[in-house]
Amino acid sequence: MPNNPYAQYNNNKIMTATPAELTLMLYEGAIKFGNIAIKAIEENDIQKAHLNILKVQRIIDEFRRTLDFKYPVAQHFENVYAYLAKRLVEANISKDKEIMEEVVTHIRSMRDTWKEVMRLAKR
Question: Whole-prediction pTM value?
Answer without folding.
Answer: 0.88
